[in-house]
Specification:
Blueprint (H helix, E strand, L loop, with lengths): L5 H4 L3 H22 L1 H10 L20 H6 L15 E4 L9 E4 L1 H17 L7 E4 L7 H13 L2 E3 L6 H11 L3 E4 L1 H14 L9 E5 L5 H11 L2 E8 L4 E7 L6 E3 L4 E6 L11 E8 L10 E10 L10 E3 L4 E2 L4 E3 L2 E3 L1 H10 L3 E11 L5 E9 L8 H19 L4 E6 L13 E3 L5
Parallel strand pairs: 3-4, 3-5, 5-6, 6-7, 17-20, 18-19
Antiparallel strand pairs: 1-2, 7-8, 8-9, 9-13, 10-11, 11-12, 12-13, 12-14, 15-16, 17-18
Helix pairs in contact: 2-3, 5-6, 7-8, 8-9, 9-10, 10-11
The structure holds adenosine-5'-diphosphate (ADP), potassium ion and zinc ion.
Pathway: Aromatic compound metabolism
InterPro entries: Adenylate-forming_Reductase (IPR051414), AMP-bd_C_sf (IPR045851), AMP-dep_Lig_C (IPR028154), AMP-dep_synth/lig_dom (IPR000873), ANL_N_sf (IPR042099), PA_CoA_ligase (IPR011880)
Keywords: Ligase, Nucleotide-binding, Phosphopantetheine, Phosphoprotein
Length: about 425
């Protein structure tokens, strides 16, 4: 089977826009009637849901930010009575206090189908065995993927995170064909597979990686280490969780499920960018019942792509996530994204894929960036000269990509803690001084 819900995945353009408008009107009315926060925002702008007459009118609607969820913590933005909520999750709190999100039974159902669409899209079906190696708690990635795997009819292996050797034994013993984890945990698993020398015993075909940014070099690394195709999975708890955007076999950008979400890519002035340009992803949910969200400022940066795709799906499409606005480091006035550093390091031999970034302010009050990288065991012959060469290569590559000098701190393999979820890579010590 090529599509899970062909009617929605391949819907003709005009019909899709009509469906979006109908659902946008309904969502605007739902938040206006049931969520005081939105009622006040609409009132302040002097609008009512009746002002939504075309899709373009979305621009009249207020935006929502993470702080709005925090201010209304925990359940203040829910649009249905508590008896209709069947589950809550929380964001991972990458940038502050976690926020809580809720789901009705219909929401859970919608989400499972979206995930099943994604899995079908990357060639999985009921015959597959799917290991879900992410945290199964409040984090959306655990149960979100799990329900989708079951909806597809595949066999779920809810391994969670940790105990990395055991994870790999399970892959071997259960004949696991698909895996989901964060890209940073994926790299750690890959390293362990290499150390155990078991790649020939694994039956993996597909890997789904998401929840944090990763580069195309990391994709190559994961694909060759596991002998798989690696696909990007995008999502955020405010919009349900993972799976609202997913790569197809073209591996060239994310399909955003447009019957469930409107995606805007906005520049600094809040204007829609042209195709190919980058901006902030702003999402409006169209079918969420428990927690409908209007024009959510994700803080995630991506490019707008044209919607035609060789896979036949007609959804809106965006590039992979280029970074998170609040990820961006400003070092001596130059913008640096950790993903740029990752992209450089993963391509260099003789070092592992693990790294940490330290930001300091020196005596002259200038920013210093130090990248800690690990030397691969077999790269060190005992010659001090080797170390100097590796250091020089890494510094040179970083300089050419970042346009500023970064110090490189070479450490022994295993020094940098391996992450099983979203990795913490940046340590900004500039404020402390
Ligand atoms: P938090 O914002 O606390 O991390 P979530 O767990 O909801 O909360 O994570 C959502 C965020 O994770 C997204 O806004 C995005 O920044 C990041 N993210 C999720 N999937 C991807 C992906 N495939 N690529 C890059 N970043 C991603
Ligand atoms: K099955
Ligand atoms: Zn496609």
């Amino acid at each position: 089977m090529k599509y899970w819900q062909p009617k929605f995945e391949t819907m003709e353009h005009n019909e899709l826009r009509e469906l979006q408008l109908k659902r946008l009107k309904k969502t605007a009315a739902a938040v206006y009637d049931n969520v005081p926060f939105y009622r006040e925002k609409f009132d302040a702008l002097g609008i009512t849901p009746d002002d939504v007459k075309s899709l373009d009118d979305i621009k009249k609607l207020p935006t929502t930010r993470k702080t709005d969820l925090r201010d209304n913590y925990p359940f203040g933005l829910f649009a249905v009575p508590k008896k209709d909520i069947v589950r809550i999750h929380a964001s991972s709190g990458t940038s502050g206090k976690p926020t809580v999100v809720g789901y009705t039974a219909n929401d859970i159902n919608t989400w499972a189908d979206m995930m099943a669409r994604n899995f079908t899209m990357v060639g999985l079906d009921a015959t597959d065995t799917f290991q879900n190696a992410v945290n199964y708690g409040l984090f959306t990635g655990g149960l979100g993927f799990h329900y989708g795997i079951e909806r597809l009819g595949a066999m779920a292996v809810p391994s969670g995170t940790g105990n990395t050797v055991r994870q790999i034994e399970m892959m071997e013993d259960f004949g696991v064909t698909a895996i989901h984890c964060t890209p940073s945990y994926g790299l750690y698993l890959a390293e362990t597979v290499r150390e155990m020398g078991v790649i020939d015993k694994l039956s993996l075909r597909v890997g789904c990686f998401g929840a944090e940014p990763w580069s195309s070099s990391t994709r190559k690394e994961l694909e060759s280490a596991f002998n798989i195709k690696a696909y990007d999975s995008y999502g955020l708890s405010e919009m349900m969780g993972p799976g609202i955007g997913f790569e197809c076999p073209e591996q060239d950008g994310l399909h955003i499920w447009s019957d469930h979400y409107i995606v805007e890519i906005l520049d600094k002035n809040g204007e829609e960018v042209a195709e190919g340009e980058k901006g902030e992803i702003v999402l409006t949910s169209l079918t969420k019942e428990a927690l409908p969200v209007i024009r959510y400022r994700t803080g995630d940066i991506a490019r707008r792509l044209k919607s035609e795709c060789a896979c036949g799906r007609t959804t809106d499409r965006i590039s992979r996530i280029l970074g998170r606005a609040d990820d961006m480091l400003i070092v001596r006035g130059i913008n640096v994204f950790p993903s740029q550093i990752e992209d450089v390091l993963v391509r260099i031999e003789k070092i592992t894929d693990q790294f940490e970034i330290y930001l300091d302010r020196n005596k002259k009050k200038l920013d210093e960036i130090t990248v800690r990288v690990e030397l691969d065991e077999d790269a060190f012959t005992g010659e001090i000269g080797d170390l100097a060469t590796v250091k020089r290569v890494v510094e040179g590559e970083l300089k050419s990509v970042l346009n500023i000098r970064a110090n490189v701190d070479l450490v022994e393999k295993g020094t940098i803690p391996r992450s099983t979820g979203k990795a913490k890579r940046v340590f900004d010590r500039r404020e402390a001084i």
